[in-house]
């Protein structure tokens, strides 16, 4: 009886094309996140229960997407990009505001952020463009990809949401990087580097003087000298660094962190939750977190590189690198190494929309590994 039940459960599990090692790593990281979330909320279970609901919904999305063959994602890329772009345009005219930014669409029964969708749509679209021919891609494919990325980045930056726009832009650039494209304006290598460096410096000058608004410039300046405004723009970074440094080797224990429990650390359940972990679990907790992240990244890269077609390899590798970027930016942000851009710590921070996007990415990576691509794509 027990063996029959086990066989049926196993058959049902195999039907869902789930990669077991990756699923185990996700469960471990999510469990650690719930534990830190419980501590950051002062021992309240209400936030943990809500996050469990988010995890349940996000896991369902991952299971569904894991059943979709990557061939359908490839063929749907133009439609997805058109829908995503239209939604971003609608946000500029009809979006609802919050926190000084206009980033959401309110349909009455649901309120969502279209830029979250673009974290997946952009890599899918760029991978579809570049995989039409053999790699490395032709110049025309690279130009079309860059125009597509620039359009999405500008629409999101207008909300304004500079941090998300740069990260989504990076997700498209990662696909270009993994495709092996080369930038060669002239044949002389040193002159080519000089021209590219000049273009980069010119772009930074234009961005600083004409694109960035005041609060965005202040965040960048605060990075280099947070003590210049300890009660204003530098407050977040100063309190976060105090919490991280006070954790020591083993930490102060769950719910015993002075900086987090006395509300000195801002946004301690979302963007700055790493400060809570570092203060209460110390350096050993940090090592545990980085170890699980490393296992997830290694497994995702391993699955992506086993794929048989260019589209799957490009998409899986870029989504994995996007995941790494979010981890690096969040930890660097709360440690004072990069400007504060409002990026949650994957599978640790409280939130629903970012978690949904992240689990959808894992579903795509599982899908491209489990499904065989058509022979004409190989």
Structure in words:
The protein has 378 residues and is mostly helical. It has one domain (22-213, 230-377). It has 14 helices and 3 strands. The chain has helices at 2-15, 20-40, 46-66, 70-94, 114-130, 139-157, 162-179, 189-211, 214-224, 235-246, 258-261, 273-305, 310-334, 353-370, and strands at 96-98, 101-106, 111-112. The chain has a 3-stranded antiparallel sheet. A hairpin with a 4-residue loop joins strand 2 (101-106) and strand 3. The radius of gyration is 22 Å and the shape is globular. The relative contact order is 0.15. The model has no long low-confidence stretch (mean pLDDT 83).
Topology:
Elements: H1 2-15, H2 20-40, H3 46-66, H4 70-94, E1 96-98, E2 101-106, E3 111-112, H5 114-130, H6 139-157, H7 162-179, H8 189-211, H9 214-224, H10 235-246, H11 258-261, H12 273-305, H13 310-334, H14 353-370
Antiparallel strand pairs: 1-2, 2-3
Helix pairs in contact: 2-3, 2-12, 3-14, 4-5, 5-6, 5-7, 5-13, 5-14, 6-7, 7-13, 10-12, 12-13, 13-14
Strand segment count: 3
Radius of gyration: 22 Å
Number of domains: 1
Across the major sheet, the strand order is 1-2-3
Largest sheet: 3 strands, antiparallel
Pick out its properties.
single chain; 378 residues; mainly alpha; three-stranded antiparallel sheet; 14 helices; 3 strands; 69% helix; 3% strand; globular
Quick gist of this model?
With 378 residues, the chain is an all-alpha fold.
